[in-house]
């Protein structure tokens, strides 16, 4: 026999209390709200209990005896008036926005829709096609976090499934799950590379859009959130959400941080023609932005049908509570915010003093987390690279595009290239931020892989079912002489060298380096630069039994080690002419300072510069030659030794040389001058 009474309105969600469970949900305009309990299968509704209304719009009920594993959902009744933004319908079972676990699968059906076309689907009950919220009691994370400083951070962006699904040294039962990321075979690979921080594509529970499932495709990347507290069930080996917590703990024990790519800009409920699954049925006007005076018209700054309304206090609370949960309970170290400019936009546009940014900054739990913004969206004033405040870091797409254009051989790129490799001071220094504010990358999950960047001049997205219309067309890519796969040794050799050029530039630039998983062994997506819906070998990394033997893997390892030896890359401030310790000199091929005219000479497709630390008595000479011609270079006088020492290059190079050296076409070189007693390793 179940007993119910008025519960507590805090905390929101389901909370285990003695022999019962307290349920609390925010639905300020609902007229009645019911808690629906289900049997262990999730198929049969066994009880429907009326909830109690509290001031401020929260409903609660305490039910006993109930315990962990209880399956439930909500039904909200009230006015149904889409023109006024009200979508209450008692026939729609709603997920708890604060659910910490889910049971069962989501299935697309007409039963999820209640207002397109108006009224005709309102009487259909969708419970059979909905996952159920599940009561859990997960203890707080007790592991020790690595707390890697930004100055030593090296980010490896990967997809949970794609990273391990074809890994031969991981058991089949674990491949493609969270636990696979904690396997020794995967961890040792990250450690070999020198990776400090694992950035995971979305792991919040998500569903595939209906337009994809009808074509036999899925939302593989996961940018279509269903619930902000539950780990995606397909990534759990046993279905137990504590597996995520265990994975984080093992990675932390290996010294590796975990950052989550989070999607607090939209949800899977889409726009006016989308389903009613949770937020719409509880507080549609509060959770989503709509056009002023037209509550039935969703603002679509995301391109996904709806935009989360962070200006609403309870939507803001939801996001903050979710972030704190993943840090406090699941143990993660930080977040990369998808379309982050949306989170700081109000009616007047982007606001670097937005309530969300202030709330995160003052939060005692979140202020220590790593915070990375993708600083753009498709809304008005959506491109905000460089506009976020301290302590935020930002994906720097100008860095990506400039490096690609330079190595592609474009003219007139040198002045901007110098800014990018020097930490993009023009973007970040204006608001007292340093070079470590820039997340530097050449490729990410979105776009060509590193191997495809040098193998395809054009995108090849036919498999996505949109007649190759999706994805970016301006990729600043090259095919090195043949479009796609090639066995020509000259082409394959050049492709390898060009990948090394990009990697060398990346790791020896000021800023925080990030690589996409698979970059270290030439992973290809067959030229698909928008492989978001490809749950197949296009995205599953093709591991070999001896992966450490790939030349790119060794090259990255050497670059990370070299980067860590030189203090200029960990220095938190920009280097200017009056710096007493550090200096940077931009040189011409005669080893002399570049003249203003030389910076703008169109045929000049090489950049030469030195970085010096007078205190540590160490110097780097970096040469980037994107021209197709041999470059004869007179080396400048080494500051701390009699001779420059060749540390690394993207091509085969003779390590014996005088003060003059011939730099191969389309190659990159690094020389060192270090006070005796300091070694590289």
TrEMBL record:
InterPro entries: GH, GH13_cat_dom, GlgX_Isoamylase_N_E_set, Glyco_hydro_13_N, Glyco_hydro_b, Glycogen_debranch_GlgX, Ig-like_fold, Ig_E-set. The keyword Repeat does not apply. CDD domains: AmyAc_Glg_debranch, E_set_GDE_Isoamylase_N. Residues 165-563 form the Glycosyl hydrolase family 13 catalytic domain. GO terms for molecular function: amylo-alpha-1,6-glucosidase activity. It comes from the Bacteria. Gene3D superfamilies: Glycosidases, Golgi alpha-mannosidase II, Immunoglobulins. One of its GO terms (biological process) is glycogen catabolic process. Keywords: Glycosidase, Hydrolase. Coiled coil: none annotated. Belongs to the glycosyl hydrolase 13 family. This is Glycogen debranching enzyme GlgX. It comes from Pseudoalteromonas amylolytica.
